[in-house]
Input
Amino acid sequence: MSKPNGPGEKSFVQGLLDDGMGGLQHNAITARIEDLVNWARARSSWPANFGLACCAIEMMATGGAHYDLARFGMEVFRASPRQADIMIVAGRVSQKMAPVLRQVYDQMMEPKWVISMGVCASSGGMFNNYAIVQGVDQVVPVDVYAPGCPPTPETLIHAIETLHGLIENGQLLKRRAQTGAGADVHVEAVPAGDAPVQVLLGTR
Amino acid sequence: MTDTSEEHQPEVAAPAEPPTMYGARRADVYGQIVLHVTREQYVPVIKQLLDDGHEMCIDLTAVDYLAFPTRTLPDGIVAERFEIIVNLLSMGARRRVRLRVQVPGDDPVVPTLFDLYPGTEAFEREVYDMFGITFTDHPDLTRILMPEDWEGYPLRKDYEVGEIPVQFTSPNPGHADRMEPRP
Amino acid sequence: MTAIVDTIRGGSDAPQGLKARSELTARELMREVGSVLRMSEADVAKLGEIPVDPSEDQTMIINMGPQHPSTHGVLRLMLELQGETVLRCKPIIGYLHTGMEKTGETLTYMQGGTNVTRIDYVSPLNNELVFSLAVEKLLGIEDDIPERAVWMRMLLSELNRMSSHLLFLATNGMDLGAVSMMIYGWREREEVLRFFQKVTGLRMNHNFIRPGGVAADLPAGWRDDILRLLDLIAPRLDEYDTLMTGQPIWRERLQGVGVVTAQEAIALGATGPILRGAGVPWDLRRDQPYLRYSELDFDVIVGSYGDAFDRYAIRLNEVRESMKLVGQILDRMPGGIYRIQDK
Ligand code: SF4
Output
């Protein structure tokens, strides 16, 4: 592997790493393999589409041209849980849906993460009644909660980016292995802006 | 299925001869035609309405008047616990007709309308699921919205809303079970 | 958590699913083969007799959904297939049952809007409109609604019809494999939502049309925004025509598929584009006008074959009609107050 030719000058590899793969701290030689894997996971996490109600519409809108989830390697909504890494539970989970939700979650390959999108999924929201599961965390371990009814696409992107940060830092999976619990991170709501879209990146 | 309970319907001043339509007691409420039919009249009257061009059944639903037995009804109509409500539409005459059937709480059974309006099949299943009213001769009377092993009929007034107290865990960083994103 | 999961898993909706043919009565079977009107009961009984539980290699029963790319989450279909032909189909619903009726029992009239706006979340304003009209009728104030509120309601519900139809076009394209259509549809819908956000403060679930009027006045510059919107969307609808309407694959996949005859649509109580697609010219805005629709000039789009293509074309052209209506409303928008002040 070529070395930098001198101070201030970058090698091809270094340049690629700096500009093309912004988040990578080490280069390919010095990185711990675990970091590399986490980095790759964070940047190609595909969501399982689990749209349930109004929030699903916003989730699809986030995948559309204007918000362009593809920037984060997330545009491929997989119908098959076997191909998905992140389950975005978008909307209200009814008592009848809960077993299906759990089954889809069980069918997903490890490593897997869950975003609870919207107040309905997080806590039952305004529907505190017999039909709705009061918080999807009773059924699956939740890593990030996105607030809002519906969360704006900006909020969803913020939640996704936060999760990407967590995936990259790696403690998440260790913790799941130990306690079976999700990360339980609450992000702030981001108001929908006029174009151009403001995106708050998650802390890395 | 909208719950129109507690609606106080001002009836028109009772004329000397109570108005009828197809032999059923008729009331005009808010400019809409309402027919109060008995369970025996239910299917024959609807059959007549269908033959007269009310070709579409827009809705079939029920109301549980458990807490409101003193509602205003035309003379001669005895208030029962349940009411089945059918909304018919005649596109030719641009007219809507609403039927109200009193159904006693201890014998919640009515005949199905499936043979007249096939579209009522799902509505009737819903009413069965939510109110526990049985429709005789229905082709497939199973629960439609709730899981099959659900207990109770959710829209009955004596069924609890099922609220559980909101128990938010602290959103503060001090919360023991939380993990912070890496700084 | 496991305890809860186990209890939930114990639940079963098997009795709601598709049964073997031999276990069915003729009426049930008739319903499932979708021939409630086409065949007599005797014919269907025969149908039920001939392949009594055909051996496995002839037909198969497939469970489609509730988690399936084209059911969008909440519809489950049990299908009996022979090759690619669907012999029987039974929809199983209730996966999105929210108990709104029960929640609604505990709300006041003014709170009700928050509930109903979430019923059909792609056209929240129209839901609110219906609820508000009903409440106003019950309270006897339907004639007291200020003119501006009435016209604002029409404006918003027409715009909402546009965004809802655009969503249909987008997802319809997506389900048929025309993914670029999805991107286009969302792009245009986003423009409409942007206007909603300016007016109501939210992109969806606005709770803006309330009993007694609307929640707030139109913001400054709304007229320019709408004119811009109309200018923007008109050529893009023509773009859809190029992309889809005349395109052979699109036609192949939609024409002659899912035919609903007028007789069936009426018997099954279908309304909206499904009914009009079957060739029945029934549009409440024209036939039982509410608000001030009787004063406006628009066409009712009607299909002729009742197939999926007609339903697509109706929606596309209804967007155009709605734009026409929005233009007229724009010219006639009265001033004044936007909600009842003294009740
Ligand atoms: S949180 Fe709000 S927008 Fe999301 S599903 Fe629930 S009601 Fe709909």
